[in-house]
Design goal:
Distance between the termini: 22 Å
Strand content: over 45%
Structural class: mainly beta
Shape: globular
């Protein structure tokens, strides 16, 4: 596919668009993967997506809510470490850095995932088609290499169930392709709190191999006391043709994050007195986390002709985690205050796609199967004031996930099309307890979950530039190993947790006006049975239980416009009512949560607005102003306290110069320019009242980069 933006003129009908897309895909590499990796980084009002249907499609033509964020937003004027830097603009998504690299981001889509006090749950994560979500459903964003990311796609709503064990959505990160001629880049970014990111990247194509090799080292002292962190990332992508109709992509990445300090949450009194302090327990127990991860993957794409192709993806990896919690864990049944995990995981996914006609109308059918497995050696030790002591837990955990799925798309009439799918999942947990004493009985056990999830959507092309759509689907979400790790009462595993099952309906509108404005609107209703919620969180350890019923209703809106004179604007707004739909209990001893209480960790309203201006003749000048808003966020099921609402503003300015084969870029960025003292994230259900995680006040970044083509 050429490097120009793939767009469609206003009068182009859906059938012609599908033909154009098929030709573009064939020109790229005759495969969905190649097309998705060749989509340009530049922003467009008519983006192409592959996450929604696993094939190249205009986002405008699909009965789903999906957004595409390009490299200009991800990399220009950013630290390029956290997804929250670029995805806060996506409606329906709440994503915030905790300013605590021991606990990862807080990320939720339509309220799914808000229960996670660390890591990501309820949302599937992918990089270049390879899962960044573990087979048990828990994901981490720290391994994403944003310095080499071409674009990120965010899928919201029921069609995410076609990706497996998740209810909220899918976040797909795609690595850029190597350019021709090859290019080498060096970049240094520095800012407040001794924060820095040093980047080295080489990319190009030679001897039939397209390559990207990117590495970066991130360091920070942190906004708060006891929040230092270092992170080393390496990402490698190689792509080549093994024949006229065969393409192979190799992907490898590694993450090394040693002893990232954890300042813990603060009580309201602590936050109001000094938001930069760490809780005394963090210092006493030297709370911290070390993560080491290595993952490799391969994707093979075989074209059998103009109308059918096969894609097979395999991956495997290891992940080691050692975390020091804010508790001693000396009791024989306590499981310890130091958690040590050694995981290995892998999987394979294969799918066949056919394109054909029904009643002279274009259609396609995809049939696929997926198998994933995960093995984990979990140990727990006494936390002797920051030193690992006696053993308190030792077990072997295994999980397998076997899925089959199908998807059908048909443009049944000139202005009507449908998309339908089904996925059946079978998830099997097994635990073998190796720590058995007179005071700690054998806690071995197993649990199986299975469910079939249908999805269906329809699009009405009201006008060449206006589409209306509706969809319906079911979601299925099993507990993760972390969520079954501790019972609310007593020792052993929480194998009584049930999977959450949701039903979702959605209505939406998409409009492209005069080629200069894009409007997306979506309204949804989601009912969930047996939603997995936090029971209690103490010292970094969290227990979970099922709520009988919950209900979500919401509206998402986004507008992007070209205002002329070098000005562009973007505005997004989300309203979300996420409530308990029946009475529930929380904590030990149990306390009643009445129907109508808000789900914690989710603001009822959030928004993002950006105005940008470009004047290339002035040394490649570009400038932007942003505003971010979030409503108040309840911190527990009973809604007894909340983090207040806030609005912050950010500004940035950048320059670019080209001298022969060299390109130089500089930027400066000021975040929270009015110095608002606010809480960006919360720790849901903390039994010590340490709910609040303060975000940085006014802070800055400065970046310099140089790249040379050769």
């Amino acid at each position: 596919m050429p490097s120009s933006i793939l767009t469609f003129p206003p009068g182009l009908r859906r059938r012609s668009a599908l033909v154009a897309l098929a030709g573009a895909a064939a020109a790229a590499a005759s495969s969905p993967l190649a097309a998705q990796q060749s989509t340009p980084a530049t922003a467009t009002f008519d983006p192409v997506t592959v996450t929604a249907t696993r094939s190249v499609e205009r986002a405008f033509d699909l009965p789903v809510a999906v957004d595409v964020v390009g490299a200009d937003v991800i990399q220009r004027g950013q630290l390029q470490i956290n997804l929250s830097e670029s995805l806060a603009r996506v409606p329906g998504m709440v994503i915030q850095s905790r300013s605590n690299y021991a606990q990862d981001l807080q990320l939720s889509i339509r309220g799914f995932g808000a229960r996670a006090n660390f890591g990501v749950r309820g949302v599937r994560l992918y990089q270049d088609g390879i899962p960044a979500t573990m087979p048990d459903g828990q994901g981490q964003t720290g391994s994403f290499s944003l310095v080499s990311t071409q674009r990120i796609e965010v899928l919201r709503g029921p069609f995410s169930t076609l990706y497996g064990n998740a209810a909220g959505g899918v976040v797909s990160v795609f690595t850029e392709d190597g350019p021709t001629p090859p290019r080498a880049t060096l970049e240094v970014i520095g800012g407040s709190y001794a924060t820095s990111n040093a980047v080295a990247k080489i990319e190009g194509e030679g001897r039939g191999v397209n390559f990207v090799i990117a590495g970066n080292r991130f360091e920070t002292n942190g906004y708060r006391d006891h929040s230092e962190a270092t992170r080393d990332l390496l990402n490698v992508k190689l792509r080549f043709a093994a024949g006229d109709d065969t393409k192979i992509t190799l992907i490898g990445n590694s993450l090394n994050q040693p002893d990232a300090q954890d300042p813990l949450g603060l009580t309201r009194a602590q936050w109001e007195a000094d938001p930069r302090q760490a809780d005394p327990a963090a210092l006493r127990f030297d709370t911290r986390k070390t993560v080491r991860q290595t993952q490799v993957g391969v994707a093979l794409e075989q074209r059998f002709g103009p109308d059918s192709d096969l894609r097979v993806t395999g991956y495997g990896g290891t992940r080691q985690v050692r975390q020091y919690l804010a508790l001693p864990g000396t009791a024989p049944t306590s499981s310890g205050g130091v958690t040590d995990l050694d995981r290995s995981y892998g999987g394979v996914d294969g799918r066949l796609a056919w394109r054909f006609s029904i009643a002279d109308r274009p259609a396609s059918f995809t049939l696929g199967a997926n198998y994933e497995s995960q093995g984990e050696r979990r140990r727990g030790y006494v936390n002797d004031n920051g030193i690992a002591g006696d053993l308190r837990r030792d077990e072997d955990n295994t999980l397998s996930n076997t899925d089959g799925y199908a998807q059908f798309e048909w443009s049944l009439l000139e202005r009507w099309s449908l998309l339908a799918g089904f996925r059946y999942s079978d998830v099997r947990f097994r635990v073998e307890d190796q720590y058995i004493t007179t005071a700690n009985p054998d806690d071995s056990g197993r649990r199986n979950y299975s469910h079939g999830s249908p999805v269906f959507g329809v699009v009405w092309n009201v006008h060449d530039d206006v589409n209306l759509y509706a969809n319906y689907g079911e979601g299925f979400e099993t507990p993760t190993f972390t969520e079954v790790a501790y019972r609310p009462v007593g020792s052993g595993l929480n194998l009584g947790l049930q999977p959450a099952v949701s039903t979702s309906t959605e209505l939406g509108l998409k409009a492209l006006l005069a080629g200069r404005h894009r409007i997306n609107l979506a309204a949804f209703h989601i009912d969930t049975t047996d939603e997995i919620v936090i029971n209690a969180a103490t010292g970094g350890r969290t227990t979970y239980k099922n709520a009988a019923k919950t209900r979500r209703r919401g509206v998402e809106a986004a507008w992007q416009g070209d205002l002329g004179g070098g000005f562009t604007a973007y505005v997004a707004y989300t309203y979300l009512s996420a409530k308990f739909a029946s009475d529930a209990t929380t904590g030990s001893p149990p306390v009643t949560v009445t129907a109508g209480a808000s789900l914690p960790g989710v603001p009822a309203a959030s928004g993002f607005a950006e105005l940008t201006w470009a004047y290339p003749r002035a040394w490649g000048l570009s400038a932007a102003a942003e505003v971010q808003y979030a409503g108040k966020v309840y911190v527990n099921d009973r809604n007894t306290d909340a983090a207040p609402s806030y609005a912050i503003g950010n500004v940035r300015v950048g320059f670019e110069q080209r001298v022969g084969a060299w390109t130089f870029r500089e930027f400066a960025r000021l975040n929270n320019l009015t110095g608002v003292d606010y809480v960006g994230t919360v720790i849901v259900g903390d039994t010590n009242g340490r709910y609040f995680e303060p975000s940085p006040t006014r802070n800055f970044l400065i970046g310099l980069s140089a790249n040379a083509s050769f």
